[in-house]
Amino acid sequence: MKYIMLVPDGMADLPIPELDGQTPMQAARTPNFDALAENALVGAVLTVPPGMYPGSDVANMALLGYDPRKYYTGRGPIEAMAMGVPLDAGDVAYRCSLVSSDGEAMLDYSSGHISTEESRPLIELIDKKLGSSRLNFYPGVQYRHIMAWRGGAADVKTTPPHDITGQPLASYWPEGDGAEKLKQWMYDSLEILDNHPINRRRREEGKMPGNMIWLWGQGYAPRLPNFLQTFGKRGAVITAVDVVRGLGRATGLDIINVPGATGYIDTDYAAKARYALAALDTRDFVYVHIESPDESGHEGNLEHKLRAIEDIDRKFVGTLREGMTGRDNYRLLIVPDHKTPLALRTHEEGPVPFLLHDSARPHTASHFPFDERAVEEATTQVEDGTRLIRMLFA
Predict the structure, then answer these.
(1) If DSSP states are collapsed to H, E and C, what string results for 256-271?
(2) Average pLDDT across the chain, whole number
(3) Residues pairing with 8 in the sheet
(4) Alpha-carbon 260 to chain mean position
């Protein structure tokens, strides 16, 4: 038996007036989801423990079977592990987002989805200007980077930039031990980057500049049990984002890099499916994370979210189902990690639908469509997100 978990990040949503009260999952054309749901267990799951922020870091940790209440230390150190950033005991890693700001408000959390080629020299300049023997900035992918603070402060209240698009910065500066230093570094970055040639060119091209860093998601390096020893399955992770790659590294899963995987709506869905199929030739389990619905939700872009859902259904799930024909029996679990409603442009807590398909044993009990209606109507309601992977392996 082979096992596949597909996590379309932020795919779940709320009813939308433009869709006559439907959600994007309900309105999108998803023939593969629909066909699977006819013979699958469809239910709802609470991926994030009550009281914890519904972020992808917490939710994906739970979906991999690790209780965030026990193991979660922050988003920054998870992404630092993905990037190979060295962290000693007492070192604190912050997620360092490259954002667009006028000094008063958060204009864009992703600097207009700035490219890695453009963001790298900007973060390298920040490290040159602000870095020290105790402080380093490490360039990552697109707008996602890391700051490592040796012996730094972790007991700080910080806010993800994608939660405050269009909001005044003054309402969301860090609070707590070390907050003034963080605030000063962020303000200093605006002075350093605002008039950089890369940002002058981006403005001339009608794009948002990457002219400020925003520090958040801090924590110490996590210590997670090995996945193979915990579940008895050799597995791999396919993702374009560092937070999921970091969770894979932390649990001893193999990391498979897919050419053309971007973390945006232009990602190569079919290539991800092909690489997942190849991974199953030598492994028991593959965890595939697709970021595009979440990015579309943060943008508030209905067209992009519908497109992302339909592309996942046709290009990824369709390719996967075709590729598994004639191979070993398999179980496929599809579950968003959280909701990213277009109306809110940020994550929302609460249950999300899931679909569990077994090629060898069709589910014959009552069926539900694979969408948000399962949250209210489905018989199977899973209150602990860590149980879902155990259901997959059961």
Answers:
(1) ECCCCCCCCCCCCHHH
(2) 96
(3) 290
(4) 17
Whether residue 28 contacts residue 22, with contact meaning beta carbons closer than 8 Å, is answered with no
**Model-level pTM greater than 0.90?**
no
Structure tokens at 354: 């899931």
Q: How far apart are CA 394 and CA 378, in angstroms?
A: 20
Q: How far apart are CA 169 and CA 385, in angstroms?
A: 34
Q: Helices marked H in 9-106 — which ranges?
A: 24-27, 31-37, 56-63, 68-71, 75-83
Residues 276-304: tens digit of each pLDDT: 999 999 999 999 999 999 999 999 999 99
Alpha-helix residue ranges (DSSP H) falling in the chain: 24-27, 31-37, 56-63, 68-71, 75-83, 116-130, 179-193, 197-204, 227-231, 242-250, 269-279, 292-299, 302-311, 318-324, 373-377, 387-393
d(C-alpha 372, C-alpha 378), whole Å: 10
Helix, strand, coil shares, percent, the chain, to 5? 35, 20, 40
168 DSSP assignment: B
Structure-block tokens of residue 80: 């630092």
- Which domains, from first to last, does the chain contain? 2-72+222-393 (3.40.720.10), 81-219 (no CATH)
Kindly state the tokens that stand for 91: 């070192």
Residue-wise DSSP of 98-127: EEEE-SSBEEETTTTT--HHHHHHHHHHHH
Q: For residue 18, what is the DSSP state?
A: G
